[in-house]
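Supplementary Data S3. Sequence and structure tokens for construct A.
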Amino acid sequence: MHEGTRAVIANVEPLNHLMDRDRLSAVVARGGVNFTYLTGLAYPGTMARHVDLSDSPRPVFVVWPRHGDPTLVTNTRAEPVTRRESWVERLRIYNPSERPVRALCDVLQESGLAEERVGFELGCITVLAHREITTALPRMSMIDCSEMMDAVRWVKTPGEIALLKRAADVLDEALLEVFPTIQEGDLEREVHARIVAACMNRGAGWVHGYLNSSRNPLPGSEAGDIPFIAGDLVRNDYVSYLNGYPGHQSRNAVLGVPTPNQQSQYARLRDIYLATIERCRPGVTAGDVYEYVVQRYAALEIRYASFIAGHSVGCWWHQQEPLIRARNPIVLEEGMVLALEPYPGGEWMTQDMIWVAHDEPQLLSTKFATDELYRIPLKTT
């Protein structure tokens, strides 16, 4: 393909292999994950919502042929940022008077795909759009390629690893900046705002997540007006995106001096956490890792009821296959990146991103040490 101003970091070789396996002449990406993956373009702000919403009046598509250059279909409003940010150079810009799906069909027709097998994310387009495509191109076969694209994305390229590492550093640095500033009387929403700002100041495009006091009865709820007091645990779970790729970590902290019970609980759960990381090696299934977590907690007479114990990460939406969930048959492969969170709920949560290497798992989120429960010193008057 003809590269744009940015280097292509998508895993093109396995994409070609799987397209050949499934006899696909092209892939059409509509959803945010695969569109961002194949274009290198993470739309900002309101434009991002048009990628998320299947019934958007301003949809975008990328047509990625097995042979030849890809074409990005977008609108006049998004054209400037598209030309600046994407590695795809061939654009089809539709104007407000055109039907977007009609523009897509024109590209497919002009690319010689009107009578070919073409992969679509069928869950990301509406019934009306499907009807319009099949009416315009009745001899084209629309094949669902969602699972195929999952398999393309889950082994990361060196460029993706580097970007994920940078994103992890941004989030850890932000937490290390803000945690020491938390004092008695600070509201959850005030601390949350400082963390979001610290990520943005380091280059993050957008940030989401939660931060709660351990006295908040709704773990994972929106940061509210509960003030922190001495002895509180600071529980959190953040995703900070850099060029569309996430840093995704959770860190435990206590305001003041931890109690012996807090220290022992942290150490006990962290032992399971570290052992779970060690299980993440090539050849092990995602379901095997989940079952290991369940058994370790059962030995402590704790029921592990969480739906997952971790997941792969990737562009646009941080939670991707393979999910570390019950009976998931997907085999872990060298080059996968997983965010592990084998915690049973409540007030405790540590999470890191690890790279599944051929010898042993490698930690990507290294800047915030988790050996001991992080202590936030209280100011004395």
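Construct B, processed identically:
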Amino acid sequence: IAERPVDPDWLLRWQEAAARAVAEDFQNLWARVLVDEVRQPGSHSLRTLAFLASLSRSDVEALMLAARLDMGGFICSDAPGYFHADIHAPLFDLLRDMGLMQDERKGSVTLRSVSRADFRAVVRCQNKALFLRGEGLQVTLPVHQFSRLGREVIGLIPAMADTAYLFAVATALKKRGFQIEIGDWFGQDGGGGLFSEQMTV
């Protein structure tokens, strides 16, 4: 598919790791890694292969939970009533211990408007998205931010957005004066996509 072939050393490492995968979800994970690498050689490093090979069943389940909250490299921490200390605090600690999440307990992400007249932005979360409208040209969100490895690994996990989480985030943004719409997100090649409006919060 790509102009240059997959590195033979990488392919050998992939074969060794994938051959040990027994469960279907683990096999699917390794298949996604290979598809990415064939499409664009260099997508996943040998370090990533070694990390994936070390994952346990409970690790993958934690990654699946985190993937449902991924908003493009971060998890918005301003979601009143959603996060539970006994569930999410251990999850975030595990992600930090694995090197998938930044060390900072509280980080931030600044979203910039795609319009020069007012604030307009789309925040994607798997198969869903939030469409924000309001005043100003940017907005800063408190977040739990993924590391570079974390973004790569989470991107391999198939997941559907957690709608309860999205509504919690949308409610918090609405209290800040933004108009929020929640809709379906149809991803396209190259990282773009289409937003289909469904509901105004």
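The CA atoms of residues 20 and 53 lie 9 Å apart. The chain has a mean pLDDT of 89.
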